[in-house]
UniProtKB/TrEMBL annotation:
Native source organism of the sequence: Saccharolobus caldissimus
Protein name: ATP-dependent DNA helicase Hel308
InterPro entries registered for this protein in UniProt: DEAD/DEAH_box_helicase_dom, Hel308-like_dom4, Hel308_helicase, Hel308_SKI2-like, Helicase_ATP-bd, Helicase_C-like, Helicase_Hel308, P-loop_NTPase
Domain (Helicase C-terminal) ranges: 239-432
Encoding gene, per UniProt annotation: hel308
Keyword Isomerase found: yes
Length: 713
DNA sequence: ACAGAATTTCTCTAGACAGCATGTC
DNA sequence: CTAGAGAAATTCTGT
């Protein structure tokens, strides 16, 4: 790989002076080596590039320059696509800068927006891969104006579940103009060729990185660094020993662990040593107070974090509420929190550098194969170690891999530190991904002949021989299950197929829903929830042995028969129980069971509950739409209400009250139990509402209730 | 024979995208 | 196949 060290002066860029002004306002006088290289390869002339470089090496600015120069030259729209909503938000805020030049910036993702007309007035649109894929299926007219695509974090192609979406977006984007950005990958020339783009590959990092492997050695631990130097640290636990070492040198530490439980445990252990570390106690108690203020999050997780944070330590995983995670990240960024122990949540995603990164576990439990521990990928390690070194604070970043078994030292050192990352490969080679891919293409492109459709598939990264295998099977399956039909030599989506594509659910999900609904005239909440949770799009939750037994005993006592027959096969059966657990969680949720109670009863975090609600909201809505499409009116009526209840976690009687923004399940219940049962009651009892919810909120709510009422008359 | 200690066996395990409604973007 | 922590079950030990 080439290593260039040229820094181009911003003044020398062939760009309008106001663009250069904006860069200088940000404090950018010179472009760093990767940025310089990209410019030299024709970035500003709209040349198609694939840029691979480490995290934090300034790829965003490259994208900005590419977008701005393209828009100046050709007009139209530019789309910036990321794999994460948090990233979408982050880039949106960065790109806002360009509104000074008259470019309008918008973002859109599943939790935020649809394809509505307002996007047509914007020049730069930041979105996720899934959202763009979905937009394409809906074919809004403004999308034709989008001619420049920035594909961020393209290495997500390797993700077994989400990679196929990235790939299919890339296939369509490469028919226009694109700029692809990726972490360092080994086969970048192959990928560049696939994208019909010029590769720009660098290893340059803003803060140099020193990597090492830490292993048990007499009376302590030894670290072997990449430059062959050795360092010795003492203590019982390697992770804690090195964390304290880095803290004593005034560094911040990011520790990665492979399970939530060990992340929490490690954080607690570290906290018990923090008396020796100077802390800004005032600032930390401010954070603790902030946690008391937030609404989201179970009380247990809040309490345990408050205790740790007061000692400058936190843990971080997806079981925590979003608000809690945001507070922790910000506290770390402000350098008040000194140590975060995290699961892989923090490996990808928003920028959160630390001087020291400790990779506590190289093995991870594999859900698919029981009892199997697999080594994490090199890519994953690079994502984690890439967080090491904070520009402006650290001269050097350090990434330490903990090896517990001495005989693995060489192997681990070689694999993670000396070798390059895995090549990017297509993950379209399975039925679920491939069928979904074809359905999406047909939905986005309209009717195509079999040959035209196949040509899209041949443009994927999947080897032709595999395309041929899956293609015929896909066409047959999609026809037999009436997603598509053939007319005058063209493949056409049926109404049902189009609906499924628009709802963005997997065709297998749709098929399961249809069969479940068509076999019964009407059913009960639990059965609907179970059916939906059982589909491939349904959420996964861990079910312990004890819970399994309980669930099995419960099946016969349910209000009504489930819509799925009990499977015989073991794997299927555990999915069946998984779905039942989800159904019970959601049932409690819509019966207004207190959140803390739900979290405790099912042993989940508030972040998990939020996830389940989000997914089941989407699926109940989709099932409602499908039942209408299939003219199953009784199901449709029930699913419509179920969907509304899942969205807010309420009984049916509160549906009217939760229309008001700022009123959720708790406030609605409070009002209802005090005789305020609808919008009219609010308007007529404003004083009572104010006394229940406080004057300020009460007033706001009364106004909105009045506004909503007016809309009806 | 039995309480309590030592040892073996069992159990558990990461993350996060998508629809739609609308007056924000 | 390539794990490690904690709880539960089982076996061992000393009196």
């Amino acid at each position: 790989m080439t290593v260039e060290l040229e820094w181009m002066n911003v003044d020398n860029l062939p760009l309008p002076s106001d663009v250069i002004e904006i860069l200088k306002n940000r404090g950018i006088i010179k472009l760093n080596p990767p940025q310089t290289e990209a410019v030299k390869k024709g970035l500003l002339e709209g040349k198609r590039l694939l840029l691979t470089s480490p995290t934090g090496s300034g790829k965003t600015l490259i994208a900005e320059l590419g977008i701005i120069s393209f828009l100046f030259k050709h007009g139209g729209k530019a789309l910036y696509v990321t794999p994460l909503r948090a990233l979408t938000n982050e880039k949106y805020l960065t790109f806002k800068d360009w509104e000074k030049l008259g470019f309008k910036v918008a973002m859109t993702s599943g939790d935020y927006d649809t394809d509505d007309a307002w996007l047509k007035n914007y020049d730069i649109i930041v979105t996720t891969y899934e959202k763009l894929d979905s937009l394409w299926r809906h074919r809004p007219s403004w999308l034709n104006e989008a001619q420049y695509f920035v594909l961020d974090e393209l290495h997500y192609i390797n993700d077994p579940e989400r990679g196929p979406v990235v790939e299919s977006v890339a296939i369509r984007a490469k028919r226009r103009n694109l700029l692809a950005l990726s972490a360092t990958i080994s086969n970048y020339t192959v990928i560049a060729k696939w994208l019909n783009a010029e590769p720009v590959a660098t290893n340059w990092r803003p803060v140099p990185l020193i990597e090492g492997v830490m292993y048990p050695d007499k009376k302590g631990y030894t670290i072997l660094f990449k430059d062959n130097t050795l360092k010795k640290v003492y203590g019982d636990d390697p992770v804690i020993a090195y964390t304290l070492d880095s803290l004593s040198r005034n560094g911040q530490v990011l520790v990665f662990r492979n399970s939530r439980k060990t992340a929490e445990l490690t954080a607690r252990k570290i906290a018990s040593y923090m008396n020796f570390i100077p802390l800004d106690e005032k600032a930390l108690s401010d954070i603790v107070n902030e946690i008391d203020q937030i609404e989201e999050g179970g009380s247990e997780e809040k309490e345990s974090l408050k205790e740790l944070i007061s000692k400058g330590v936190a843990y971080h995983h997806a079981g925590l509420s979003k608000q809690l995670r945001d507070i922790i990240e910000e506290g770390f960024r402000q350098r008040k929190i000194k140590v975060i122990v995290a699961t892989p949540t923090l490996a990808a995603g928003v920028n959160l550098p630390a001087r020291t990164v400790i990779v506590g576990d190289i093995y991870r439990f594999n859900r698919r194969i029981a009892g199997f521990q697999e080594e994490i990928s090199v890519m994953e390690y690079k994502q984690m170690s890439g967080r090491a070194g904070r520009p402006g604070f650290d001269e050097m970043g350090e990434a330490i891999i903990v090896v517990r078994d001495k005989k693995n030292i060489d192997k681990i050192f070689k694999k993670y530190i000396l070798s390059s990352t895995e090549p990017l490969e297509s993950k379209l080679g399975n039925e679920r991904a491939f069928y979904t891919f074809l359905l999406g293409i047909l939905s986005a492109e309209g009717n195509l002949s079999e040959k035209e459709l196949a040509n899209f598939a041949y443009e994927s990264l999947l080897p032709k021989s595999l395309v041929d295998i899956y293609f015929d099977r896909a066409i047959q399956w999609l026809s037999e299950h009436s997603f598509i039909r053939e007319e005058e030599g063209k493949l056409i989506l049926t109404d049902f197929g189009k609906r499924v594509a628009d709802l963005y659910i997997n065709p297998f999900t749709a098929d399961i829903i249809r069969k479940g609904l068509e076999n019964h005239r009407s059913s009960c909440d639990i059965a609907y929830l179970h059916l939906l949770a059982f589909t491939p799009d349904g959420p996964l939750v861990s079910v312990s042995k004890n819970e399994e037994e309980e669930l099995m005993g419960l099946i016969d006592d349910l209000d009504c028969d489930l819509l799925i027959e009990e499977p015989y096969e073991e794997d299927e059966y555990s999915l069946y129980l998984n779905a039942l657990k989800i159904a019970l969680i959601m049932k409690d949720w819509i019966e207004e069971v207190d959140e803390d109670t739900i979290l405790g009863k099912y042993n989940i975090g508030s972040g998990d509950l939020r996830n389940f609600v989000e997914t089941m909201d989407w699926l109940t809505y989709s099932a409602y739409q499908l039942s209408r499409e299939l003219k199953l009116e009784e199901h449709a009526d029930k699913l419509r209400i179920l969907n509304a209840r899942v969205k807010d976690g309420i009984r049916e009687e509160l549906l009217e009250l939760v229309q008001i923004s700022g009123i959720g399940r708790k406030r609605a219940r409070l009002l209802y139990n005090n005789g305020i049962r609808g919008l009219g009651d609010i308007v007529m009892n404003v004083d009572k509402v104010k006394s229940l919810l406080g004057p300020k909120l009460g007033e706001k709510i009364a106004q909105e209730a009045a506004r909503l009422l007016n809309r009806f008359y």
